[in-house]
Amino acid sequence: ESKNPQAQFVWAILRNTFHYAAINLEEIAETARDLDFAMRWGFGQKQGPFEIWQQAGWQQVAQWVSEDIAAGKALSDTPLPQWALKGPVADKGGVHQPEGSWSPSRSAFVPRSDLPVYRRQLFRAALKGESPDQGAVGDTIFEDESIRLWTLSDPGVDDVLIVSPRTKMNAIGPGVTAGLAKAVAMAESRYQGLVIWAPGSLEGGPFSAGADLQAMLPLFMSGGAKAIGPEEKKLQDAMLGLRYAQVPTVAAVSGLALGGGCELALYCARRVASIESYIGLVEVGVGLIPGGGGLAYGARRAAEEQSLAPEAYLLHFLGKYFTNAGTAAVSKSAIEARRMGYLLASDPIVFNAHELLYVAIRQAKAMHDAGYRAPPKAQFRVAGRSGCATILAQLVNMRDGGFISPHDYHLGKTIATVMCGGDVDAGTVVDEAWILALEREGFMSLLEHPKTQERIMGMMQTGKPVRN
Predict the structure, then answer these.
(1) Residue 296 forms beta bridges with which residues?
(2) How confident is the model at residue 136 (pLDDT cuts 50, 70, 90)?
(3) Could you give the CA distance from residue 270 to residue 38 in angstroms, rounded to a whole number?
(4) Would you say 104 and 118 are in contact if contact means Cβ atoms under 8 Å apart?
């Protein structure tokens, strides 16, 4: 209806797309569903043409398209097919309905295929109008504004507890931390396993974008860094709860898993990752260090890898994990995440994100059936003050050469101190509690640093990292 030339240009593109799709549907596809999925999966569109048409108002758009065809404005004078103008599609307001999608060749709404391969997709790709609300599926055990604990209804999969954060970008705040602790206790008492899965990841959303800085701000303003300390300890305890739970814990990762979201995946007994998983510890972007166990994980994994090659230097293995955290490196795929050490060889990588929950539940059940037992409390060797000095020598060169800022150097020094175990001799055996205490100490000291506060406020106001 707009006379604006840009608006008319957009309408012309949409009109010709709707017109062309409607005319050719019967010849090229069995149903409108197939055509919409082809445009989404084959051409990268967020929505197919029939989805857009239906959401805009089927009958009104069909009338406008017909008027433009009659006025000679369309690319072709071929009229819209009759099924688009009258009959079941027009009466119901679109080609996608709960009973199925419209098939011109059958003159009926055709349900989805029930081939066995599709049973791996517990939640199929959604089409507006056709699929139920995925958030309403399953049996809710507990929910609040931060988290939902639920199970699937079908026998055989109803004995695995599913944890789904409900915060913006699935950020981890006090509510999610409390929910995770509750979920572990509940799973240990009643279920065979626990799976962490974000329903929004099916539509390209994140697994978790990390810590909820917005939720931490009032606490910091009222009590300073000391007020954050107890919450940081609760987060670390929740992570350790996942690692040492008496039932298998599985993270079903797809999309962004950054900062605390990365740590959430690392501390599960197993990870199942979609090929399109972007995993990394990115806290240095806001002037902080990983505080939920990310550095403790790197220190422990480096020691475990070095134990398989005792003649090698521990620092050779630790360097990868230090660089990942110090440069805020994020994997570009699940395969790269495996090379970075965030996924293990035993962690399956799934090509189709819609099969992720199925595979994660099966992994949890298989681990339970195989007699899963939590690992013993970890004790491992650290690189100590000499390893830290080696890393700092490289950081000094980068700082004095102008490659990093003085605050970047300070962050790198803090990360190195934590991952090397602090002021101890090389080869000293420590436990996770020792490294986690160093993590908390470094995290809280950085919170009070003015340069870090600049970075946090800049990120919250603009969404972009501040290089200071």
Answers:
(1) none
(2) low
(3) 33
(4) no
Both tokens of residue 303? 């020691």
Q: What does the alpha-carbon distance between residue 354 and residue 119 come to, in Å, rounded to a whole number?
A: 10
Three-state DSSP class for 77? coil
Distance CA 259, CA 31 (A): 42
Q: How far apart are CA 448 and CA 461, in angstroms?
A: 19
- The total of other beta-carbon atoms located within 10 Å of residue 98's CB is 11
Q: Reply yes or no on whether the pLDDT at 462 is more than 90.
A: no
| DSSP symbols for 325-372 | HHTT-B-SSHHHHHHHTSS-TTS-EES-GGGHHHHHHHHHHHHHHTT-
Q: Which residue shows structure tokens 């996770």?
A: 432
Does 137 have pLDDT greater than 90? no
When pLDDT is averaged across residues 409-427 and rounded to a whole number, the result is 97
Query: From CA 41, how far away is CA 23, in angstroms rounded?
Result: 21
Helix 294-307 to helix 406-419 angle (10° resolution) is 50
Question: Residue 98 and residue 108: Cα distance in Å, rounded?
Answer: 13
Residue 219's SS3 state is: helix
DSSP string, 409-442: HHHHHHHHHHHTTSSS-TT-EEEHHHHHHHHHHH
Structure tokens at 312: 């090698």
Report the SS3 class of residue 386.
helix
Instruction: Find the radius of gyration of the CA atoms of the chain.
Output: 26
pLDDT tens per residue across span 9-23? 999 999 999 999 999
Can you tell me the distance from the alpha carbon of 68 to that of 408, in angstroms, rounded to the nearest whole number?
60
Statement: residue 167 has pLDDT above 90 = yes
Specify whether the CB–CB gap between 26 and 95 falls below 8 A.
no
List CB contacts of 102: < 8 A, sequence separation 6 or more: 31, 32, 83, 88, 89, 95, 96, 108, 109, 110
Residues found in the chain = 468
Between the alpha carbon of residue 452 and those of residues 132, 255, 409, 445, the distances in Å are 44, 27, 13, 10
Question: What is the pLDDT at residue 203?
Answer: 85
Residue 180 CA to its chain's centroid (Å): 16
Question: Which residues have CB under 8 Å from 337's CB, separation 6+?
Answer: 273, 277, 279, 331, 343
d(CA 216, CA 212): 7
pTM listed for this prediction: 0.91
Tokens of 217: 């701000």
- Is the distance from CB of 395 to CB of 414 less than 8 angstroms? no
pLDDT of residue 27: 96
Q: For residue 280, list its beta bridge partners.
A: 258, 330
What sections of 129-173 are H helices per DSSP? Answer: none
Q: What are phi and psi of 150, to 5 degrees?
A: -155, 170
